[in-house]
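Hello again,

I reread your note about wanting to compare the complex against the isolated chains. To keep things tidy I'm splitting this into two emails, and this first one only covers the full assembly. Below are the input lines as submitted, including protein chains and any nucleic acid or small-molecule components. They are followed by the predicted structure of everything together. The single-chain runs will come separately.
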Amino acid sequence: MKSVILGIHLREEDVEPVTKAMRVADLFASTVGVDDDRPLADRDLLLEIAGVRAKLLDRATFVAVRYGLSVRDESELATKCGDRTAKWRELLIAHREEVEMTLKAPPAAPTARPDRRDFESGSAYLRALYAATYAVDVDAKFRARIEETLVPRATQHRWMRDNTSVELAMLVRRSDLDAIRDAGEELRRDFTSVPFLLSGPWPLEVFASDDHQQ
Amino acid sequence: MIISNEDDKLRESLTFAEPAIPERISADPEVVENGLAKLVLSIIELVRRLLERQALRRMDAGHLSDAEIERLGSALMKLEQKMEEMKKVFGLTDDDLNLKLGPVKSLD
Amino acid sequence: MADQEIELTVLEALDHLLDRGVVIAGEAVISIGDVDLLYLGLNVVLANVDALKRTSRK
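Full-complex prediction:
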């Protein structure tokens, strides 16, 4: 039996009885037991785990662990986490009353992709690709409305872009979720021609990840 | 909660790759080689897109040194080149691989 | 919930599960040079594609 790790939580009661908790330093990891010979790349397992994470989030905010980690026991988990638990603990305490919300939209107008044959160096090519990617944004009016009605309700926010979408990640107090929902409905009504997706709540993902750290 | 203006473009945006793996892989020997080639190339192309996406996210976060930018850029260029060569070898086009580039469009 | 909405919800849940969150173990890492870029084994990446494929066929 292996244990798939879902998230890192502040208290044991944030995890139990929804699912089994495993100690790691002074924190608790939520786990789901999986047969040793069951592959992790299983759609039903993925959906089951997504469901468990949603239930966990209902109880308390936690640091999301990217899917794919499975361990035998607590000591393996401790070894893998190392000294990062201190940082996670800080995040969990600081953002106890908050959740993440995500808004995604495809870029408004595609730009020409740089042709690699036009470039001598890897650096020049990647910079050009980056510039082309970041030259795009969502519809300007749409963006302005988001800045007016959604962003002010977030305690923190981050705009992100990559080669397929423009995204806004927000940290929002649980008590503000209804207001966010209302603002989202308004966006949908007023911008019928702009495809977008507002989803959540989510556990700490963007705001816990090393990727986007300053 | 999920609030959205549904659109095909949105789906492309959410799922960074169109489902690229062929429905059925034939047992017919003549077809097998081509079928496998499609499968392998589709997977490699998917990985290439994921790598590109991660590289762009890292650049956005300001987490890459100049040396890393050079290495990543070169590797991505080589991957793209290899993909093109292999497509030629197997006589496959982007359509065959069921690929549609996302909003940063190719000029091809 | 309408079918399309259910589908979007599933896609979105999978995207968050597979493409976000802290990375704890670098067992299956695809790197270029010294830069770790992809943390999941191909099997989980494939799961992503396969999961999405099956969902969108509904």
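For quick reference: Chain C touches chain B at residues 4-5, 8-9, 11-12, 15, 30, 32-35, 37-38, 42, 45-46, 49-50, 52-53, 56 (CB under 8 Å).

B.
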